[in-house]
Amino acid sequence: MTDRTILPAVIRRWLPLLAVLGGASALLLATDRAGSRRSVPAVAVLQQVSTPLLDDAVRGMIDGLAEKGFIDGTSVTIRRYNAEGDLAQANAIAREIVGGGFDMGLTSSTPSLQALATANDRGRPAGRRLVHVFAAVADPFSAGVGLDRRDPLVHPPHLVGYGSLSPVEATFRLLQSIAPHVRRVGAAHNPAESNSRRFMELARATCAARNLELLEAAVENSSGVVEAVQATISRGADVIFIPGDTTVSSVTDSVVAAAAKAGLPVFSVTPGPPDRGTLFDVGYDFHQVGLLAGRMAGEILAGADPKTIPIRETSRSIPPRLTVNLAAPGYDRARWRVPEAILRQAQVVIDEGGRRDQPDAVLEGPFDEPHDPALE
């Protein structure tokens, strides 16, 4: 046998082994690449609807993650979802997140918290549930997600975040300082939202204590808000109140327009752009609220155990803020007057001359809510 016949025979003998080794090498390389990709955590962010407040909270979450070293596209992959006000869509998105291979879910708003918490409980067995950090939630303890108001360490081991209940009593105290003549307050609200129910419970208790009549109109979705506001106006409302209600807040511009036609101002506990038309707003800077949650999420991604972290209150980290718009529609200077003492407490004041920022201004307390055993 010549060298020319021996060489092909050797090659044919070793070819299957070479193929196996080559396949194994390719598999190891693919596995290594997949492992490298999984070394970068994947985070899903869900918000219920597009509003300046919830958008700010999400932006703050992403900034808070970055502060902890988790930068989108570099050391973490972040995918944002928005249900655009549709509860059914929120539930569908939540199920997608739970089954989508994410390492963590972040939520902005109470409905988003509830949607993801429910999908997590139903879609994964205990011990393997998606880590979930929430923010932009007025009262997480009334959201039905397994929290205990008496002990902030009592919560599902995978679920933690920040509550941000704006001070209702302080807001109505400012109202009466600005307009002592006010007797009736109109408020549209969606009773299907647990956050809205909490705010309205506090508003009822506050109005009862302050000899104010609260004229309520329930709505199911944003398309019914204007009609509900008009109904309270027809019943004699002197001013319109926007509670911490995602449905109503999503159409704040329409609420302001409806009230302006009747010559009434609007006030809220859901701060947004200071020039949006509300007379005054009391609440939190939701970019700062999101920052708190984003930092917490970053600590968990870095190794902190969420079950050892208590449910936290925003008020313990940042104070509520006041914005005042003296150019707001419905602000009748003959009947309404914002005292200088209140203007000095506002971080932003808008008048005919433009905008004045007062970043060092601090809203004076107390911020205690009226005691009502039914709220406990």
Label the CATH architecture of the largest domain: 3-Layer(aba) Sandwich
What is the CA-based Rg, rounded?
27 Å
Count the E strands: 14
Distance between the termini: 97 Å
> Roughly how much helix do the residues carry, as a percent range?
25-40%
Q: Which sequence of strands runs across the widest sheet? A: 7-6-8-9-10-12-13-14
| Count of all domains | 2
Low-confidence stretches: 17-21, 23-37
Query: Which structural class should the secondary elements be placed in?
Result: alpha/beta
- Give a short account of the largest sheet: 8 strands, mixed
- Morphology: globular
Stated plainly, the CATH topology of the largest domain is called Rossmann fold
Number of helices: 11
Strand/helix succession: HEHEHEHEEHEHEHEHHEEHEEHEE
CATH class of the largest domain equals: Alpha Beta
Mean pLDDT: 90
Instruction: State the CATH superfamily name of the largest domain.
Output: Response regulator
Please name the defining characteristics of this protein.
Rossmann fold, eight-stranded mixed beta sheet, 2 domains, 376 residues, globular, alpha/beta
What does it look like?
The protein folds into two domains: 41-164 and 286-304, Rossmann fold, CATH 3.40.50; 168-283 and 320-375, 3-Layer(aba) Sandwich (Rossmann fold), CATH 3.40.50. 40% of the residues lie in helices and 18% in strands. The chain is built from eleven helices and 14 strands. The strands form two sheets. Strands 7-6-8-9-10-12-13-14 form an eight-stranded mixed beta sheet, with helices on both faces. The termini are far apart.
